[in-house]
Amino acid sequence: MVYYMSTFVKLVALYEKCGLSVQSSLSPAHFPGFNLAEIPFTYIYDGDEKLSKGGGISLSEIAFFEAVFEHYHPKNILVIGNSLGWSTLALGLINPAASIVAIDLCPREAERRGIEVTNMLGKYLTANVLAVEGRSPDAIRPVAEEKLEGLIDFVFIDGGHTNDQMLKDFDACRAVADPSCVYVFHDVINFQMTQAFNFIAQENQDLSSSLLYRTPSGMGISYPKVWANILGPVVLAFSESDQRRAALWREGRERLTDERVS
């Protein structure tokens, strides 16, 4: 009998191989003092020392990627923002036939260690995984041309969390990507980068763009219409309807008003 093991379970086991532990996908309701922008995401620990400053993708965001790649199989994947490799390795596990290259600025020693950890653990994967130090957007073209055989056909942008940086990263990726490339952006809503995302959507009408409200970070996706039949149902499942969003915002404002009055 063949047993299926989820990407999340495999990831946790990978990090334990090198003596690291994983904190991931927790609820702030269970741990008072933490908020929705931090504890639902993934952090890598060496003993009691937290190595990753920013939070990696959550369990539900891994589920999103599993759904995305069920029938869509890119060959050349670029990750901007590697940290300790959690997202990079997740993409490698889900896409065993792909080549994945991750870039990280490595502003701290922990991120340099993250490059080493990613490359070490990547050897256990069938996919070809490589993490390198580099500053986006400048490093995107040389890394893509030197480290990948062929044009990029999937990008995960999780680098500098500003509107300006996200735009620069997208533009640099688009310049060296295949026309069929799919772009996913992490933390769009949580880090108030909807302005950049909306600009990308408006300026790239050949792409279908949606905010994914059912992901904890508020991810965004932009994909060519050629993938509509495959990715459309996935995007719908991880989005929220205009009607429900309007109703939730209205109810939320009413609750806040009631709290102030009481």
Using the coordinates above, name the CATH class of the largest domain: Alpha Beta
Q: Distance between the terminal alpha carbons, to the nearest Å?
A: 60 Å
| Overall mean confidence score, pLDDT | 95
Alpha plus pi helix count: 9
Strand content: 15-25%
**Low-pLDDT windows of residues:** none
Element order, helices and strands?
A: HEEEHEHEHEHEHEHEEHH
Coarse morphology: globular
Overall number of domains: 2
Which fold does the CATH topology of the largest domain refer to? Answer: Rossmann fold
Relative helix content: 40-55%
Key structural traits:
alpha/beta, Rossmann fold, three-stranded antiparallel beta sheet, 10 strands
Q: Could you explain the architecture of this structure?
A:
With 262 residues, the protein is of the alpha/beta class. The protein folds into 2 domains: 7-50, no CATH class; 59-243, Vaccinia Virus protein VP39 (Rossmann fold). The chain has 9 helices and 10 strands. The chain has helices spanning 7-17, 59-68, 86-94, 109-122, 140-147, 163-175, 194-203, 228-238, 242-261; strands spanning 21-23, 43-46, 49-50, 76-80, 99-104, 128-133, 152-157, 177-185, 207-212, 219-224. It has a 7-stranded mixed sheet with strand order 6-5-4-7-8-10-9, sandwiched between helices. Strands 1-2-3 form a 3-stranded antiparallel sheet.
